[in-house]
Design goal:
Number of strands of chain B: 11
Distance between the termini of chain B: 37 Å
Order of helices and strands of chain B: EEEEEEEEEEE
Helix content of chain A: under 10%
Number of strands of chain A: 11
Structural class of chain B: mainly beta
Number of helices of chain B: 0
Largest sheet of chain A: 6 strands, mixed
Shape of chain B: globular
Oligomer: heterodimer
Strand content of chain B: over 45%
Radius of gyration of chain A: 13 Å
Chain lengths: ~110, ~120
């Protein structure tokens, strides 16, 4: 069975600091991995996806993620946090068409 | 191109009533997925439908819940005899195909409150 685990339910950073949100996956087949962002009372928006074309994936809003097979990880990073990045972030793996989500990480950005 | 539309955005029901949640996929999308987000939890898959077919309902509770995606009209998630534990945000997503790499586009969700 495929699954993802997000380490840290809450992450707080200062504006301008590095953002690092952790995601580890478990999959018996090459995984297709996604990061979504959810702003309060809204639906999910795709940040980026890994489909085996390149291990370093660039997404919207300055986010990127690196697929590391040896570490079974797909961590999300952004060099410099902005106040508008405050939201909940979900890592997900595709399984037979459906998405299996992690528990989510709430990102707070302090001024 | 309008995104995924869900209505109502907020729904209040008393215990024992029925809840009907509607989802109109993006234009050209024939695959619909329903997810549920319980308070303090992540999103859990419920059901995956194509037009007139249920592809995967492994996440649906065995009783009281049903879903359909008719040839014409929106997809409907129906919850009969609601209980307080059904209070959650229900999200619909759509995709153009069934491939594993296809992005799913999410609607704004319906927030169900059961009194």
């Amino acid at each position: 069975a495929q699954s993802v685990t997000q380490l840290g339910s809450h992450v707080s950073v200062s504006e301008g600091a590095l953002v690092l949100l952790r995601c580890n996956y478990s999959s018996s087949v090459p995984p297709y991995l996604f990061w979504y962002v959810q702003y309060p009372n809204q639906g999910l928006q795709l940040l980026l996806k890994y489909t085996s074309a390149a291990t370093l994936v660039k997404g919207i809003n300055g986010f990127e993620a690196e697929f590391k097979k040896s570490e079974t990880s797909f961590h999300l990073t952004k060099p410099s946090a902005h106040m508008s990045d405050a939201a909940e972030y979900f890592c997900a793996v595709s399984s037979g068409g459906k998405l299996i989500f992690g528990q989510g990480t709430e990102l707070s950005v302090k001024p | 191109n309008a995104g995924v539309m869900q209505n109502p955005r907020h729904l209040v029901r008393r215990r024992g009533q029925e809840a009907r949640l509607r989802c109109s996929p993006m234009k050209g999308h024939s695959h619909v997925y329903w997810y549920r987000q319980l308070p303090e939890e992540g999103l859990k898959f419920m059901v995956y439908l194509q037009k007139e077919n249920i592809i995967d309902e492994s996440g649906m509770p065995k009783e009281r819940f049903s879903a359909e995606f008719p040839k014409e009209g929106p997809s409907i998630l129906r919850i009969q005899q609601v209980v307080r534990g059904d209070s959650a945000a229900y999200f619909c997503a759509s995709s153009p195909g069934s491939g594993r790499i296809d992005e799913q586009f999410f609607g704004p969700g319906t927030r169900l409150t059961v009194l």
